[in-house]
Amino acid sequence: MKTKLLFTAFAASLLSLAATAMAQEMSYPEKCKGMDMAKMGTSSGGGMKMDMAMEEMGAYQKATMEGMKSMHDDMMQGMMQKDADVAFVCGMIAHHMGAISMSEAELKYGDNKEAKAMARKVIDAQKKEIAQMTKWVNKEAK
Fold it and tell me: Is 57 helix (H, G, I), strand (E, B) or coil?
């Protein structure tokens, strides 16, 4: 019994360390961090003070932000589904649509051949996955 408890505790510790290591490997790169959205605050009506920030953005940033807003709204709707599986898949469809929108903005405004090649790969992969997930939702969602 004591051995079994020790083994269980050891296994749990290993899983915790693995999860921590994975989270560290997947951390957001410092060089990707730009405008601190939290510092933008909120207006008295509760909405973000995006008008001023949008005025300061270039065409690429505006295109990307529009796509991200649409993605966020759709993800939030999808995640409100009562069935966890349906909510996950609906949220992922919106997430993938956001990736396509960002990739299309890269193709339109980007200059780097390697970045544009990544964008094309994202579009191709995400479209296939969206089709697969949409088919699943249409079959499984009640």
Answer: coil
